[in-house]
Amino acid sequence: MSSNDNDHRGLLPAGLAALLPPDAAREARAIDVAIERFAAFGYERVKPPLVEFEESLLGGPGAALSQQTFRLMDPVSQRMMGVRPDMTVQVARIAVTRLKHEPRPLRLSYGGNVIRVRGSALKPERQFAQVGTELIGVDSAEADAEAVLLAVDTLRSIGVSDLSVDLNLPTLVAAVASGVNQPEEAMSRLRRALDRKDEGGIAKAGADKRAADLFAGLLRAAGPADKGLAQLARLELPEAAAAEAARLAEVVKLVAAAEDDLPLTIDPVEYRGLEYQTGVSFSVFALKGREELARGGRYSAGYPEDGVSESATGFTVYMDAVLAASEAPTERPRLYVGLGTPWADCAPWQVKGYAVVRAVVAASDPRSEAKRLRCSHALIDGEAVPL
Amino acid sequence: MSSNDNDHRGLLPAGLAALLPPDAAREARAIDVAIERFAAFGYERVKPPLVEFEESLLGGPGAALSQQTFRLMDPVSQRMMGVRPDMTVQVARIAVTRLKHEPRPLRLSYGGNVIRVRGSALKPERQFAQVGTELIGVDSAEADAEAVLLAVDTLRSIGVSDLSVDLNLPTLVAAVASGVNQPEEAMSRLRRALDRKDEGGIAKAGADKRAADLFAGLLRAAGPADKGLAQLARLELPEAAAAEAARLAEVVKLVAAAEDDLPLTIDPVEYRGLEYQTGVSFSVFALKGREELARGGRYSAGYPEDGVSESATGFTVYMDAVLAASEAPTERPRLYVGLGTPWADCAPWQVKGYAVVRAVVAASDPRSEAKRLRCSHALIDGEAVPL
């Protein structure tokens, strides 16, 4: 190898990294485990292309990511294409177009990489591996609960235990607001106070007592699910809002029935980052580190602007957070075999779990050559000798 | 679901397809099998990003794909990036930069998707899944043979048997040409005749007898490896060309020793599509259909224009051809379970190999609901009843 310095060739754009050994293999294995859990619950994999026409990629819920999408001119069609910033919209597109005649609910899964124009201060990455599911065409508490339980099951299978789930109703505040009929200015002060979780601000917003009490009550419902739901039940919510709260209670009951040790919290006033959700939404966290590992919830799959839309729920697992929260598996032992070892002699060692590293140049001392090649063992006189 | 027609949303750019069930899962499984075979021979996975700076992506052997690369302006660095049209160059870049201090030979593997600006008439696809290996930093017949044998082993593991391998020496013609010292015009006629495999054209090219005999001899060497190598050995090749032919003979001997039933052919004058190869190259075909399933060979990893370059060999498996040539695995049975089935009751069926499809809406007749959902079985009174 030349000793010239060509490190400039190795520079990558900010937020775009190469995964090296053993991280690349770990990420791929974790994605496989997730896809296998999804398949065990009847979710079938689809693979949308990396690039699509802008029109399909950024229609419907995809519009929210328009600013984050790299554009390419297609020389074949002379139309603009986008590099996918997210896969949910692509999977939903497949569901309402190519798979529109399949029976509902339609269960689909996906795993792949997405690219965004800019990272954030908190998350500088611009390429992510996403793996997740969509359950399309049924709006029921059982479907909502299946998404939560499958996310938890998947994370545990990948090797993250000690999870907690936070459930949200991102459209609840709007439903309460439209039911209490307050002056516009008071309402915007109320919502700002809610965003800051500022109960004093709610009292001073200038809304009538019923509205102020309702919003303060919503704020107090944040916390452990059982107490929060009891708090919500005590409020005299407008009809649409009451229906949302009842759905949340049903979902919590179904999740708790399957997972009695899983810490469940609710935060019924949270909606940030959930702009395209239309019903019960959730985040799964690792108890250690409080990192968000997966996020999902109910949304409208399709293109409501075309009059084509189906209620759906699903979730995405954030692979980078999951790998940071799970333990690295032990690597397989590496067995060095000398020059001229018959090809067929490798298989028995591979069956025993070794990676067989074949010599491709002569070496006078197999032990030191094996060590140089980071092998744990060398094949000497037919034996795998530890080094 | 709305009955509105929104098929225009489902249109994809020419050459960019979505894989649907079961093809997406099949492709992913085949990639997993390949990566596992690579790991069993000590090849460690790397995952380069989808997008890199033009400078790293299109340096060295990457220059050949410049016309096929989509460009993006990076708003962060204000520099041009390219969407990868190939992964070999990325893996080689990682080897000579981030992993330059790792011991040689360095064995790396990769699996991922690439995008090209245009498809060809024969292959209209513009997105491909590539999976392959690179063996970097050693130039030996054993290394060349390892690439061939690992490609064959991998394809068989994926489920394609009945393979044949065609070996090439894409720089041999140039080595012969520079050794025979003919007038420029005669030489260009000779090479055109070689490209057309036209022995009569060689005789009429106006070269001297020694040159014409050598080129005709190269042409006659194409065919079964044993006869072809014997034919090459009879020629009085210039020194550099003789060394290349000797290397090819050594590689054939090593491959045949490991695989005595594998049909081996050589075509020493073929160089088309092998422009960046610098030594023994090969294609693996399925005997049925004669489709090219994998291609590889020796090349210079790195950026020779920077004085940084290492001899390497490797191969890429073409997933689309492999899937067309292999049989689809049988799908797992799908078991419908009614509303209210405890979550924990699914696991025993999943262990038995069923995909468990949980009801998320009530159904009066589990059998017909299960059939509607394309299930093969329904859980009735604790039994998996076939439908």
From TrEMBL, chains A, B:
CDD domains: HisRS-like_core. Residues 36-271 form the Aminoacyl-transfer RNA synthetases class-II family profile domain. The keyword Amino-acid biosynthesis applies. Pathway: Amino-acid biosynthesis; L-histidine biosynthesis; L-histidine from 5-phospho-alpha-D-ribose 1-diphosphate: step 1/9. GO terms for molecular function: glycosyltransferase activity. InterPro entries: aa-tRNA-synth_II, HisRS-like_core, HisRS/HisZ, HisZ. Its main location: cytoplasm. It is found in: Cytoplasm. Belongs to the class-II aminoacyl-tRNA synthetase family. HisZ subfamily. Heteromultimer composed of HisG and HisZ subunits. Required for the first step of histidine biosynthesis. May allow the feedback regulation of ATP phosphoribosyltransferase activity by histidine. This function is generally fulfilled by the C-terminal part of HisG, which is missing in some bacteria such as this one. This is ATP phosphoribosyltransferase regulatory subunit. It comes from Reyranella humidisoli.
